Amino acid sequence: MTQPATTRVARRRDRRKAEIVRTATALLSEHGYQGMNLEDVAERTDIAKATLYHYFSGKDELVAAVIEAMTTEVNQRLEQELGRVRDRSHLEQIRTLMREQIRILTDTAPEVAPLFSWPTTWPDSFQDTIKDSRRRHDAIFRRVVEAGLAAGEFDCPDADVALQCLHGVLNQSSLWIRPSLPPERKAQLWDAVVDTASRMLSLRAASAG
User: HTH tetR-type domain: which residues (predicted)?
Assistant: First the structure.
């Protein structure tokens, strides 16, 4: 009887911890690092502030958990979409990644944009964490771009410059493709951004888009 009871306790703890992380994510998105505090997290989660310390030692540990959770979720979604088109051309693969990234930023998880896509003031203690998050995210796109270059499918002169420009285009899309737009209009804009951004990698993308 002890093991099932222990398992149930662990599941409840995991659910509560995930709820706290979701609440902190919303607050970070709304107010940034400086504006987020544990009192608001506790109030929105409907628990005592002291209870938070059963799950996280303090604000920085909670924020680190938010960054890791968001990084993992976004990257998993990108990898899942990439897996669907892995047998297709590199151009189709990168277009699929771009479209999913835009969909995340402007539709399914707009809270990602204020934390990762726009210039944000993070304390020095988080600079390495944010850099690592962006490096892991970039690696998914970079893998496809470098494979496309090796296969002769892409002809951009500098992969690093192309990737920087590509991320810039995708991030900026979250500023004007608002979640409140009708789904049909959002889909049209997603396609337009993907078509335009694809041309940074290959002139052949212009005719394929």
Answer: 14-74
